[in-house]
Amino acid sequence: MQLTLDICTFLYRYPQPPLTDGKRLPVVLDIGGSTETGTLGINRINHSRKIPRVHCMSNPCTFRVNEITIGVTSTDVLFHMSAEEINANLEPGSRLRRIAQHMLMQQSFYPLFPPSFPINLDMTRLKNWLLPCSPDIMIVPSKLTCFASPILDSTVFINPGHLARGHTGGTYGIMEIHPFDNYVLEQTGGEEVLLQHGVPDRIHVEIKRV
């Protein structure tokens, strides 16, 4: 019983550290055979040219692919904020975008206090759920209506939904980011200059149902 409580406490703690593999000793349980637990088995995946194919990240996390900065959290903060806010006389279709703005304007992956049940917010790790910058793309899966929309003219906010809904299939998102047009690069004259990423103008997002 104590083990179950500890596991539940860890699973619902926010923020959560990345799962590790190869940095801790596996535990072998003898339950009708040898069952290894405590690792993800990622070390058994064949890597071509020793380049890792799987990366474990924290929840939430901010990472960069080339020049694109992406923020991700698996916690349904949109639903939590939606349940707590009071609104009236909103323009059609503006509610979800306005809720998403709170995350960017407060520079936080979880701009809600006190947290919604069953989130166990670890206040000693406040800096771990703060946004270090305004990302080009924010991916926040939620049970609310799926959408993909520019927020504050610079960040593309994506709610792909959940891959499974109970016993039925859910939704997922496919992202395609196009490179800069040649004329934009030609204007730099081959010099190193700072360019606006302009992701809202060169991204295509498609939400598909399973």
Instruction: Using the alpha-carbon principal axes, give the shape.
Output: globular
Oligomer: single chain
Task: Give the helix tally.
Answer: 4
Strand-residue fraction? 25-35%
Number of domains: 1
Element pattern in H and E: HEEEEEHHEEEEEEEHE
Share of helical residues: 10-25%
Total beta-strand segments: 13
Characteristic key phrases:
single chain, 5-stranded mixed β-sheet, globular, 210 residues
What does this 3D model show about the protein?
The chain has 210 residues and is α/β, with parallel strands linked by helices. It has helices at residues 2-11, 77-84, 95-105, 182-186, and strands at residues 13-14, 27-30, 34-37, 61-65, 68-72, 120-121, 137-139, 147-151, 155-159, 164-165, 168-169, 171-177, 203-209. The protein is globular. It contains four helices and 13 strands. The longest helix is centred in the middle third of the chain and has 11 residues, at 95-105. Helix content is 16%, strand content 25%. The two termini are 37 Å apart. It has one domain. The chain has a five-stranded mixed sheet with strand order 4-5-7-9-8, with helices on one face. A two-stranded parallel ribbon has the order 1-6. Strands 2-3 form a two-stranded antiparallel sheet.
